[in-house]
Amino acid sequence: MFACRAIAGGSLDVISRLSRTVRNIAHVLLPPVCAVCERELPLADDALVCGVCWSRLQRLPHPQCQRCGHPGSVTNCHWCAVLPAYVRSARSVCWVPDGSAGPIVHAFKYGGWYRIAGELARRMSRLAWPDEERSEWSGIVPVPLSASRLRERGYNQCRLLADALAQQWKIPAYDQFLMRPVATRVQARLTPEERLRNVANAFRVSHMPSCLRGSHLVLVDDVITTSATLNACAAALFDSGVRAVSYVTFGRARSLGDVPT
């Protein structure tokens, strides 16, 4: 038995060395480049976005509202006014499309670079939340895509973020019950009023697990602009028995009155 284990261990060592050799050869023939700026990436780096591009994020400055995380006044926050009362809090990493965030999100969402989800989620997972809120979280729910949009894109970027965040935060991700039966128009091209009309009643809950009734869930999206999409999702969850919802996104669009930093 010892000899068998030694042979098996030796075989694994050979396979590992061969894998490294193949990887080194592939790096020479087809060097990996940053998904954003196409700068060559180091051999030992598994990232898809280079450190320079990550350093150019325009992170949300402080002070921030304790509830919604929006920079500016910590009292009488104008951004909180757009959030329903059952939305406990919201957090985002950086301004979009400022700095490198816009190209990073575009590569992730439209360019097929779906593995960037892990790199985005690591930065999202480090956001600061009140301890009492984190202890309440029962799970993470991604903003769903319509069936037609999912076929067109090939993946739901929000689901990838939710799965990666679930691993970081050690809580489950649920993508089975919040649905988007109607293919709405692309929000980026709409005015705030059109965004509200576009996603009104666009989401529904097919079946709410009994264990999640009265729970506090975290909704995940890549970017929050007017909060219309996330608010519509939160309304569907709340109407189905969820007690509270929080939002987490990678990017946040500036609202009227926000001053570039």
Account of the 3D structure:
With 261 residues, the chain is of the alpha/beta class. It folds into 2 domains: 1-30; 58-252, Rossmann fold (3-Layer(aba) Sandwich). It has 9 helices and 6 strands; from the N terminus they run ααβαααβααβαββαβ. The protein has helices at 2-29, 51-55, 101-109, 116-125, 131-134, 147-153, 157-169, 192-199, 228-239, and strands spanning 87-95, 137-142, 178-179, 204-205, 216-224, 244-252. α9 links the parallel β5 (216-224) and β6 (244-252). α4 crosses α7. The longest helix has 28 residues, at 2-29. The protein is globular. The termini are far apart. The model is unreliable at 1-9 (pLDDT under 50).
**CATH level 3 topology of the largest domain:** Rossmann fold
Report on the biggest sheet.
4 strands, parallel
What integer is the average pLDDT? 86
Name of the CATH architecture of the largest domain: 3-Layer(aba) Sandwich
Count of strand segments: 6
Distance between the termini: 65 Å
Percent strand equals: 5-15%
* Count of helical regions: 9
Class of secondary structure makeup: alpha/beta
- Widest sheet: strand order? 1-6-5-2
Low-confidence segments, given as residue ranges, are 1-9
User: Which overall shape is indicated by the principal axes computed on the Cα atoms?
Assistant: globular
Number of domains: 2
Helical content, roughly? 25-40%
Backbone CA Rg: 21 Å
Query: Tell me, what is the CATH class of the largest domain?
Result: Alpha Beta
Order of helices and strands: HHEHHHEHHEHEEHE
